[in-house]
């Protein structure tokens, strides 16, 4: 069979819409790098893909996949599952309207009901976070199961992330009060004593028994990264008397740090285990409930991450729970690259990070972490105080909007609401702000044709993975140069979809997988629209059936230009929807 070789990225290649004017025999472009007569080299391969125009392709006239011999059993062969909100957006506004930046919402007392959770899902929540610092396991179990029920009954694909408490020094639960206000000049008592009766007024429990031994008179005590500040003025047995020097709101289980002569006192924290005995019980709970991600607080080294992943694998063989490393301490910053390499993703926890480094260093470290995660192909979440004022007020400050915009400009995978959605007065409005700002900045990026200076190094660990990586790099370049409407990727594990997300193409990425758990996990990554669809190794049947199902639901139209990839055949195809 003779073929005609062309260079897809050549300036002489026909415009996207002119593909529809080509003869049907030339409309399908296929590429299989396994048959290339030369070795793959990063310097040349992504820039000039040698492709072949195949003769009359039966993909546009097959039997809609009914003859497939090995359709995955995890998804119905006659149905396709897609997030209800995304489907509505595609129908109403088209491909380019879809939001690429994902949104994580912390679920708390303000949002734990079925109606509130559905409102967040409708508003664009991609991942629901449960924070084990607060509430009982039974409370969290109810939230997790409500999210799962919402997915099953309403057609969402919201993933669940469980956040461990960690063993750093923090306050108690304030005797059950939702918060307490510390005013300038007030004397507060921080104590390691336990009380059978309600806490005395202006008294706070501390979880660390050595607290009174470690602090000294004159030390500064920061609550929640500086949301309130105290000066140690007296030590009386198990009690530490402190003068409030910066007023603020105290929240249950808030992190505590103390400074001496302008430096963080961290000797004791360095000796505390990353994963406490309570954390291990919470992790067992998360495994039993089938959460999609476990976020580990105050990670100090890659060893902790590897240990947890081995534990999860032993407790639940075949589990697909992802481990997210929270970067929020000096130790995690010192061992940043090894921690990110070992993890399945990272969170830039700016609140606690800002309590351990100089405030002016936080923006630079945020940009460094976001860039490094992207280079290493790990999803990254920017978290803490994005819209802090919206805990109390219905609109954000302009500075907060600028902060959110910068995270989107840095092309982080996801943004996270904490107190804004957990206990704030306006959780839905806060989510709406994240959504609208993300959409606007993403559109601005495309309209201005912004280019990135970020170099993406090779991350493949095998030759087969290298082929997949090069295919994805090239597909993203082709998509941008041709202005295609969408990239379709058929993936069993989600890896190839992740590689495409890393490239940040201008168009959305439709990720088709037969696994419900893989579909939810992909919902954390930039630009991916995860579908659940049974498919086979026959790409022609897969494409034909996908076109039929999506057209029937009004999500694509004849003439739309798409690129199709597969991690089973390691192939790439460019075509107009018939």
TrEMBL record:
Keyword rRNA-binding tagged: no
Domain Pyruvate kinase barrel: 99-430
Entries under Pfam families matching the protein: PK, PK_C
Cofactors, names only: K(+); Mg(2+)
Keywords: ATP-binding, Chloroplast, Glycolysis, Kinase, Magnesium, Metal-binding, Nucleotide-binding, Plastid, Potassium, Pyruvate, Transferase, Transit peptide
The name this protein goes by in its record: Pyruvate kinase
Catalyzed chemical reaction(s): pyruvate + ATP = phosphoenolpyruvate + ADP + H(+)
Domain named Pyruvate kinase C-terminal: residues: 469-568
Record pathway: Carbohydrate degradation; glycolysis; pyruvate from D-glyceraldehyde 3-phosphate: step 5/5
EC class: transferase
């Amino acid at each position: 069979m003779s073929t005609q070789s062309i260079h897809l990225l050549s300036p002489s290649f026909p415009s996207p819409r002119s593909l529809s004017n080509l003869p049907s025999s030339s409309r399908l472009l296929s590429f299989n790098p396994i048959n290339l007569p030369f070795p793959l080299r990063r310097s040349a391969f992504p820039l000039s893909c040698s492709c072949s125009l195949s003769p009359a392709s039966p993909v546009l006239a097959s039997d809609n996949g009914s003859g497939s011999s090995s359709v995955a059993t995890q998804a119905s062969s006659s149905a396709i599952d897609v997030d209800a909100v995304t489907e509505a957006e595609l129908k109403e506004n088209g491909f380019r309207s879809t939001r690429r930046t994902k949104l994580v919402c912390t679920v708390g007392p303000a949002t734990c009901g079925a109606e509130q959770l559905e409102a967040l899902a409708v508003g664009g929540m991609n991942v629901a976070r449960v924070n084990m610092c607060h509430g009982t396991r039974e409370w969290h179990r109810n939230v997790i199961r409500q999210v799962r029920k919402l997915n099953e009954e309403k057609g969402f694909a919201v993933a669940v992330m469980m956040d461990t408490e960690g063993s750093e020094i923090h306050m108690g639960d304030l005797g059950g009060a939702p918060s307490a206000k510390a005013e300038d000049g007030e004397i507060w008592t921080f104590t390691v004593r336990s009380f059978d009766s309600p806490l005395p007024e202006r008294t706070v429990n501390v979880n660390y028994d050595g607290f009174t031994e470690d602090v000294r008179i004159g030390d500064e005590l920061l609550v929640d990264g500086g949301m309130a500040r105290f000066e140690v003025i007296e030590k009386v047995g198990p009690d530490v008397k402190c003068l409030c020097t910066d007023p603020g709101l105290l929240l249950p289980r808030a992190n505590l740090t103390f400074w001496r002569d302008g430096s963080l006192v961290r000797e004791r924290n360095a000796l505390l285990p990353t994963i406490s005995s309570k954390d291990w019980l919470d992790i067992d709970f998360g495994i039993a409930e089938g959460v999609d991600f476990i976020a580990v607080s105050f990670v100090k080294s890659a060893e902790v991450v590897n240990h947890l992943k081995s534990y999860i694998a032993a407790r639940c063989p075949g589990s697909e729970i992802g481990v997210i490393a929270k970067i929020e301490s000096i130790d995690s910053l010192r061992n940043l690259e090894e921690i990110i390499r070992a993890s399945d993703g990272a969170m830039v926890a700016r609140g606690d990070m800002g309590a351990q480094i100089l405030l002016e260093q936080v923006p630079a470290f945020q940009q460094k972490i976001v860039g490094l995660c992207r280079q290493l192909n790990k999803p990254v979440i920017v978290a803490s105080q994005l819209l802090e004022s919206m805990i109390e007020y219905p609109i954000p400050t302009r500075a907060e909007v600028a902060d959110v915009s910068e995270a989107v400009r840095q092309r982080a995978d996801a943004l996270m609401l904490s107190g804004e959605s957990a206990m704030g007065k306006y959780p839905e409005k806060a989510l709406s702000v994240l959504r609208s700002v993300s959409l606007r900045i993403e559109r601005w990026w495309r309209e201005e044709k912004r280019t990135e200076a970020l170099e993406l190094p090779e991350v493949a660990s095998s030759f087969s993975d290298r082929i997949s990586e090069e295919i994805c790099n090239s597909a993203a370049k082709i998509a941008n140069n041709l202005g295609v409407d969408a990239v379709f990727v058929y993936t069993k594990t989600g890896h190839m979809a992740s590689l495409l997300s890393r490239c940040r193409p201008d168009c959305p990425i439709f990720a088709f997988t037969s696994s419900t758990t893989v579909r939810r996990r992909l919902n954390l990554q930039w630009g991916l629209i995860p579908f659940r669809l049974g498919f086979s190794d026959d790409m022609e049947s897969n494409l034909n059936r996908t076109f039929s199902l999506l057209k029937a639901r009004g999500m694509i139209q004849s003439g739309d230009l798409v690129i199709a990839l597969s991690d089973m055949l390691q192939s790439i195809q460019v075509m107009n929807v018939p």
